[in-house]
Specification:
about 130 residues; alpha/beta; elongated
Length: about 130
């Protein structure tokens, strides 16, 4: 996923008026942050992890959407529009029970400077 993001970043750096970033797959939210989950990541029972431990786990194995936004804003100098289409659940098998999901969810804080984000689901939904 990181290599694909780097190729995309380089392709939209200076040569386009608008950029379209699309992600189809799984995602999860924790501590107000949205993480995009790469294909093939093994599920793990995280029901006994603290929110901070779970966030550290996700930072090692997934892509924080806020960092994707920051990277694209930096190379596009915050001046050119970027459209994000996220067709993903925002809760998933990283949690062992529905109750655990509801207790740990927090709507992510999103940076909307010169960008538009289209979600296929609401926060906490599959």
């Amino acid at each position: 996923m990181i290599e694909a993001l780097e190729r995309f970043r380089d392709s939209v750096r200076d040569n386009t008026d608008a950029a379209l970033f699309s992600f189809v797959g799984h995602a999860t939210e924790i501590n107000g942050k949205l993480f995009l989950i790469p294909a093939g990541l093994r599920q793990k029972d995280t029901s006994v992890m603290s929110d901070d431990d779970l966030e550290r786990h996700l930072r090692r194995h997934a892509l924080p959407f806020g960092e994707i936004q920051a990277i694209l804003r930096q190379v596009r100098k915050g001046q050119k529009p970027t459209v994000f289409v996220l067709d993903c659940c925002r809760s998933n098998g990283f949690y062992s029970t529905r109750a655990a999901v509801e207790e740990r969810m927090a709507a992510p804080s999103l940076d909307l400077i010169n960008s538009c984000i289209i979600f296929s689901t609401q926060s906490g939904q599959v």
